[in-house]
Amino acid sequence: MSDRTIGFIGLGIMGAPMAKNLLDAGYDVVGYNRSQEPVDEHVESGGERGDSPQDVAERGDVVITCLPDSPVVEDVLRRDDGVLAGVSAGTVLIDMSTISPTVTEDLAGEVNERGGEMLDAPISGGEEGAIEGSLSIMVGGEESVVENNRELLEVMGETITHCGPSGAGQTTKACNQIVVAAQMVGVSEALVFANQAGADLKSVVDAISGGAAGCWTLDNRAPSMIEGEFDPGFFASYQYKDLRIAMDAGEDFGSPMAQTAVAHELYKAMETTGRGKDDNSGVMQVIEDLAGEEARVE
User: Fold this and answer.
1) pTM, entire model
2) Is 5-165's fold the same as 172-291's?
């Protein structure tokens, strides 16, 4: 049983199982969410209810945020009853959202002004990783703060990597999402092509998974993709948001983003065709739209 109280803000698809893992590890966890049903479920699992982000920050030694995007993180921190209003000397804020690196740097400065410390610690691994506590966590911030909280992070993740100063975790996550999107689009194109050519889709997946093309998407998503199952482990709308962050950062740093630009447009199409709440592997449906035929098994 830890003697530290954890505040957890954002009990969604990823946040809820992460908070549950902390409870199971013996931490006291005060939970807050904009909608109340996830908070009720958190309380049923043994957690405590937070009345506001400020309340959570005042009660927590460490405050974890797991939120959709930069504007939401900024609002939750800066509003009148926000996290910053409850931060005091010694408070550690760990933002596990995926947001802009420059926004992260600004918020870290505001936390520091109030005597607290901030880590940006975006995550990868999907809902499965959140449930199993096997996430990859990319951390930016002071190394001493990372080490002081490594045991806590290891409850939620299997791979904890300190990537550099504030903002470095978010930069690393942008790199991660560039590669994830490339996998999703590449696998989608391959499966639609195989279908158009009359190949057996299950055999194609089995064959290429064991060779140089083997990747996470083939192992964890392709079997459901060819069955037309796109229940969300990670929303396509979040993938689109992450690619916007990557594209903006590429512009700021003058980095070529040719492949990412194509993926960005395909995920934009997911949004405009009403598929943003599908899993990010659902980008296959956009490729199918272009082909005029679905790639499915019986």
Assistant:
1) 0.88
2) no
Structural domain 172-291, CATH architecture: Orthogonal Bundle (1.10)
Q: What is the pLDDT of residues 185-201, one digit of tens each?
A: 999 999 999 999 999 99
Neighbours of 214 (CB within 10 A): 11
Q: 234-289 pLDDT, tens per residue? A: 899 999 999 999 999 999 889 999 999 999 999 999 999 999 999 999 999 999 99
With H, G, I as helix, E, B as strand and everything else as coil, classify residue 104: helix
Average pLDDT over the chain reads: 96
Answer yes or no: 202 catalytic: no
CA end-to-end span of the chain, whole Å? 50
| Contact yes or no for 49/31 (Cβ under 8 A) | yes
CB atoms inside a 10 Å sphere around CB 258: 7
E-strand spans in 84-242?
92-95, 117-120, 123-124, 135-140, 157-164
Phi-psi category of residue 126: left, alpha or beta, with phi > 0 → left and psi -120 to 50 → alpha: left
Q: Which of 76, 71, 74, 108 lies closest to 92, judged by CA?
A: 108
CATH architecture of 5-165: 3-Layer(aba) Sandwich (3.40)
d(CA 286, CA 124): 24
Catalytic residue, chosen from 20, 173, 241, 277, is: 173
